[in-house]
Amino acid sequence: YLACSGVELYGEAVGGLVSLKANAPPPMAPVPPPVPKIAEEKSPEQKKNDAIPSGDSLPDDDAGAVRGAIPVVVSQQVGPELSGDAFSYSGDLDTQGVCYWLGTNCGTEAWQNPMKRGLVIVRSNGLMNDSVGVEAIVGHDVVRCVTKPVKQAWFEIDFQNYAILATHYTLRHYSSWDTEALRNWKLEVLTNIKCPLFFFFFDDNNDNHFCGSCDGEKWTTLREHKNDEALNLKGQTFTWSITAGGYFSRFRIFQFDKNSNNHYYLSLSGFEIYGHVLRQHPTLTWDQWPKSKSKSLNVDTAKNVVQNSGSNDQWQTCKTREPLVFGLDGLAEFSLLIEKMENTTNSWKFMAGIAPESFTCQNNKQWLGAQKSWGYIAGTGGKCYDVGKSLSYGEKWGARVGDCVTVIADAKNKTIEFLLNGVSQGKAFDNFDVSSGAMFAAVSLTATNSAIRLMSRVSPSSGPPQTVQRVVGSVASPTLSPRNPSPSMFHSINFGWDAVLKSQYLAIFPDGVSVTNKGSNDTWQGVVSQATFESGKHSFEIQVINDAKTSNTWKFIVGVVPTKFDPRKTAWVGSQNSWGYIGGNGGKCYQVGKLVQYGVQYGGNDVIKCEVNLDKNTIEFFVNGKSQGVAFDNLVGPVKPAVSLCGKGSCLRIANVI
């Protein structure tokens, strides 16, 4: 028997994933225990001349005087400048970099540290007791920010929902001394990460062991500096050019040898980066319906990533939940970023492109290029439409993490163009006809564990991410299918689940419209929508994302509740003067926990539509488009959509609220 009822770990920790609500400040870092102060060695000349006390930041009331003692050094010969949609370098720590732009909330507000905005996370191997916090790395002021003197010290800058094809980066030395400056370091990017695993086991002698295993993070060097003497004075800056070769979100300054004072302190007080930028697509998200997603694919809704969980190198395809929306110029655009790539026996590897609404991910030809879809092939650089043959087109891609394919669809001129890492491969197709119906962004994968993230290009003038549908001009927007609500519907706070009116063990996904039972021992958990129906005719759909096993034979309940309904008291729809349609047996209930025969059972991947008519006081339910008849004729408004779930892992999504 292995009997254990708890585990805890102690020590220093770095990294981790943080989920933040919009506009929420970053979580407070834990306060480290006091440790003996390790003093930096200083020459008599340094002690005599240095004007800034060790550990002090620049006081606001004396900022001008102190900064006057810090020389302004402009870097020379940092490489060619960029134009167009790039964040282009013009001078050290100017207002053209990505960190500054994020600090202004994408150019729309007064500057605030981007880490405090929750848009950037900075990590380190551990700081000195008298150092300011790691947020100073992306801050404005020249301050004392310094790590503990350990070998291989580092600072990491994590841009989270943004990825950068870097062309230049800037560093600034700290405020304390003219020494302890960087000499030997690398600018690295994270290209692979595997989670640590802790486990117990017994050996042959029946002795128990607690072990840890971590395949670790793989960091790739963008630029290595050996005995680089660019930084010499306190507060001094310098900028270097980079050839990145791909888009990355996590950057690290990694010191691999001693600094200018023959110590291992890593002293920095500023970081900026320039180049082309992507961010997580605000209006297109990967679908999870079987028709739109192959069975071996998993979707991470928080990061907008689709990953192959294992298909024996067979094609697996995923379409977006929302159709493409074309602007006044007739254009629609999206980008596909390789988050993870693995070996595969399929020489085509990945495919990026566009699929029509009729494209299904449930048959033998579920790869882009089949079923009248358009694809750009990674392994050959070719293209294909409605045929399993690669036609000569552009450069190969998909052999490395960070590759990005941007798809530009032109509904007016009926063309599709692909860009590889920002470079056009030319017009691939001239038969893109949207008159046949809605079109969807799509991707095909073969390798197990390979993953692709859905992104969009941004420029210094882009502004914050928008979650509403763009205005459509003369180019007709294809009709939306019932299972593909418009972006404005999906992200509207007017009908998403209410984060307050929900039971304890329910979790609402970042999209605001999907909800899951985290585990309630098969007891009811309920949640209420933010939408309110007061008069007239209304409807909404509930889509079963996951039908988990449960000992409760009712499984789900879909219905409407009065505005005073509180799922924190009784969580099943049908109580508290509410009206419900039961999934496990097809019954209905009102006021009492007893079913009355009504319609068919539902579950699996069914779509349940609820129509309410407050003029006639009726409620009617539909399952996959088929009416089950009028369920209730005693409706009293106002009411709100609501659902109840009991199985651990069960998941429902609300859509098409009208």
Report on the architecture of this protein.
The protein is mainly β. It has 3 domains: 44-280, Jelly Rolls, CATH 2.60.120; 297-466, Jelly Rolls, CATH 2.60.120.920; 489-655, Sandwich (Jelly Rolls), CATH 2.60.120.920. Helix content is 3%, strand content 33%. It is built from 4 helices and 35 strands. It has helices at residues 44-49, 63-68, 98-103, 487-491, and strands spanning 121-124, 154-158, 162-172, 185-193, 197-202, 208-213, 217-225, 237-241, 250-255, 270-280, 297-300, 305-308, 316-319, 331-340, 350-356, 374-377, 383-385, 404-410, 415-420, 423-429, 439-445, 451-458, 497-502, 506-508, 514-517, 525-529, 537-546, 556-562, 579-582, 588-590, 607-613, 618-623, 626-632, 639-645, 651-655. A hairpin with a 4-residue loop joins strand 11 and strand 12.
CATH superfamily of the largest domain: Galactose-binding domain-like
First-residue to last-residue Cα separation: 56 Å
Low-confidence residue ranges: 15-74, 76-84, 195-215, 468-494
CATH architectural type of the largest domain: Sandwich
Task: Give the helix/strand class.
Answer: mainly beta
CATH top level of the largest domain is Mainly Beta
List the helices and strands and how they pair.
Elements: H1 44-49, H2 63-68, H3 98-103, E1 121-124, E2 154-158, E3 162-172, E4 185-193, E5 197-202, E6 208-213, E7 217-225, E8 237-241, E9 250-255, E10 270-280, E11 297-300, E12 305-308, E13 316-319, E14 331-340, E15 350-356, E16 374-377, E17 383-385, E18 404-410, E19 415-420, E20 423-429, E21 439-445, E22 451-458, H4 487-491, E23 497-502, E24 506-508, E25 514-517, E26 525-529, E27 537-546, E28 556-562, E29 579-582, E30 588-590, E31 607-613, E32 618-623, E33 626-632, E34 639-645, E35 651-655
Antiparallel strand pairs: 1-2, 2-9, 3-8, 3-10, 4-7, 4-9, 5-6, 10-22, 11-12, 12-22, 13-21, 14-18, 14-22, 15-16, 15-21, 16-17, 18-19, 19-20, 23-26, 24-25, 25-35, 26-34, 27-31, 27-35, 28-29, 28-34, 29-30, 31-32, 32-33
